[in-house]
């Protein structure tokens, strides 16, 4: 019996946590301390905070992965959720390991905008597109994150003649088309943008660089 109890403890999943980008929300965990237990499989359940019954996530029932997609199960973005995972190996089941409480609206990370560059002689025009959520409108298009938050765009210019690390903030606001003027011809510039959520005081990562020489 002692051996079984030891195995239960050794295979119990560790560090169960939600990670979320633009409401694509996945539950992650690490295997227990028994790394050599290769035949370990995992079982995932979830529930809304305050509910008494846990729901099985059928796609993540007896899986070998250490990640489970709960995007559809957490689509009520203002609700707080919990996830939990247990492991089984050689017919022995661990106890459940619980995540922290997860509220998608408050905790999802927002991605950067998509940036398209159009340039003329002395200016560059940037077109920005908000990141999209996984949730769809009735017609099938994905709902942009601007439906859920008041988003601002921050646009930075990197003058490659100067310092690679120096990013000058040239615009902050809601416009989707931004014109950057007074750039010097023959100089290589790169543009990057971020999404900023004032309500949460949170910024996205930088978008991929768009570089141009006028």
TrEMBL record:
Start and end residues of each Fibronectin type-III domain: 12-107
Disulfide bond in keyword set: yes
Listed GO MF terms: cytokine receptor activity
Statement: the UniProt record of this protein carries the keyword Iron-sulfur: no
Domain of life of the source: Eukaryota
CDD domains: FN3 (cd00063)
UniProt xrefs under SUPFAM superfamilies: Fibronectin type III
Keywords attached to this entry: Disulfide bond, Receptor, Signal
One term under GO cellular component: plasma membrane
Family statement: Belongs to the type II cytokine receptor family.
Annotated protein name in UniProt: Interleukin-22 receptor subunit alpha-2
Record organism: Phaethon lepturus (White-tailed tropicbird)
Source species taxonomy: Eukaryota, Metazoa, Chordata, Craniata, Vertebrata
